[in-house]
Write a structure and sequence with these properties.
alpha+beta, 2 domains, 3-stranded antiparallel sheet, about 240 residues, 8-stranded antiparallel sheet, Transferase(Phosphotransferase), domain 1, 5 helices
Length: about 240
């Protein structure tokens, strides 16, 4: 366990807490209804199941882990439990903590929770700090200039150089704040072994390109992709 996290247990719930919040977080924090009017649904991207929360003068995001695709027809809220190390909320909390310590632009993790609903199934949620004044890249594609796309390319390269693989790099998981960029939603993200082949980086970039194309179309992708790659590859802005 890292020094920046505290393990807690309440009845059948288990959670990790950022040490800065050691006396505040309870299992109720992961129940949207607990917050009443201080919780508002997030309506951009994702599968739902996320809320903006205001508490103690701080703005947070609560996100439940929900399945998509065909498997969601069988079980939308539960996951296979193998061991605590593989619980998705705990894994994401620790990836974010490590990225935070490396000063990379990600939200600060506040707490991660899971509850076993049977010996082989669990439900999970995570709370992170909300990035102020942030707008999803999907809403800003047409307003960014070449220098912005160059900067975004550099930002993604910084993540790749640390060896972190974002499992779903898309236009909704990149947030824009002025001329700065942040990555969110590191569910299933991980740090790749130094010995791993670099193909995962190309897969990441290809996934991002597909998302840009889906949101903005071929013409927009062709217009911005060169500046983005120049930033990623370390070329100067033309």
């Amino acid at each position: 366990m890292a020094e920046s996290e505290i393990c807690k247990r309440e009845n059948s719930s288990f959670f990790l807490v950022n040490s800065d919040f050691r006396g505040d977080v309870t299992s109720d924090w992961f129940v949207p209804e607990y917050w009443g009017s201080d919780a508002a649904p997030v309506d951009s991207g994702g599968r739902g199941g996320a809320w903006f929360i205001n508490t103690h003068g701080r703005q947070l995001v609560l996100r439940k882990y929900l399945r998509g695709g065909l498997v969601s027809r069988v079980s939308r809220k539960t996951y296979l439990y193998t061991n605590e190390h593989n619980v998705r909320s705990f894994s994401e909390f620790r990836v974010l903590s490590r990225l935070n310590s490396l000063s990379l632009p990600v939200p600060t993790p506040i707490a991660a929770w899971y509850r076993k609903v049977s010996p082989l199934q669990y439900q999970a949620a995570i709370i992170v700090e909300r990035i102020q004044n942030a707008v999803p890249l999907a809403d800003r594609i047409s307003t960014l200039n070449d220098a912005d796309w160059h900067e975004l390319g550099q930002t993604i390269r910084c993540f790749h150089d640390t060896g972190v693989r974002h499992a779903d790099l898309n236009c909704f998981n990149v947030l824009v704040v002025g001329s700065d960029f942040f990555l969110i939603d590191f569910d299933k993200g991980c740090f790749m072994p130094p010995s791993s082949r670099p193909l995962w980086k190309n897969d990441n970039l290809n996934r991002f390109a597909r998302s840009l194309k889906k949101v903005a179309g071929d013409a927009a992708l062709n217009q911005v992709w060169g500046a983005f790659l120049n930033g990623y590859e370390g070329s100067m802005v033309s």
